[in-house]
Amino acid sequence: MNNILRMPSSSHIVDAEHPELAAPRAELCRRIERHTPGEGLFETVLPGLFFARLTKPGDLNRAVHSPALCVIAQGSKHVMLADELYVYDALRYLVVSLDLPVCGQVVEASPEAPYLSFRLDFDAAEIAELMLRVGPVETGVQRSARGMFLGRTNGSLLDAVLRLMRLLDTPDDIPVLAPLAKQEILYRTLKGEQGWRLGQIATADSQAQRIARAIAWLKAHYAEPLRIEEVAREVHMSTSSLHHHFKAVTALSPLQYQKQLRLQEARRLLMSEAVDAATAGHRVGYESPSQFSREYSRLFGAPPARDQRRFRERLSA
């Protein structure tokens, strides 16, 4: 994913091979364009609802992705989790069920057919509350434990998405109707072919839920030396079981996950608070400036100071 990948437009494929999706997809595009005045990601007045618009393929973007449902109206995107590639477009949606360090790149976008996407954030408590009403969710044949998966976009899901989006036109209805619309979207996702994987995160005392608690602990203590035994005690697992299930869910070891958190936060400090590289490294837990510079370069493709300088040059251009 070091180079921008270009693919033929998928929009005509969706409309030609899945005519039942053509009308809702077209409305989805129109509504996203109305609420995206320029390039980038835009937050709406509905809590947790975001729209994105790009008119050309994007650069690689590394981030810790929060739990969310991502639906593309037009264009396509690649997301990497460790060395695993997830490709999604107007026919496939992406679900991230817990905080995961990922690398994303929009690969299909143009001024004539911009990349347009919908993102709805959620948390495990909302899924747990819904499951109390839905009951147990049937598991799939392939019992992957990954905290990220793709699902096939269908008309029922798009209809629910559009009901939520239409509330932006009637803001007085949002307090009452938005929770209901969001619940329907999550219900459609939970009942999808891979929805059981989302349900695992909200199942009391499941291995997936324990890993979610381990992730929360790591996020709260990322700048401290990692003591795996302490994390294991916090989530009531043996150290070997924690390692095994953590990697099954996140594709990373706890140490690799902590390193991603540290480096992502260091980059935020460099770009938004304008601290120097040594200060950023120290604040996220690195004792060795050379180790920090080496690991930062490996992840972001340039040493901290050079990366910071390029960022400032882009802002002033």
From TrEMBL:
Domain HTH araC/xylS-type, chain residue ranges per copy: 212-310
Gene3D superfamilies: Homeodomain-like
Keyword annotations from UniProtKB, A to Z: Transcription, Transcription regulation
MF GO annotations: DNA-binding transcription factor activity; sequence-specific DNA binding
A Pfam family recorded for this sequence: HTH_18
Recorded superkingdom: Bacteria
Name of the protein this chain belongs to: AraC family transcriptional regulator
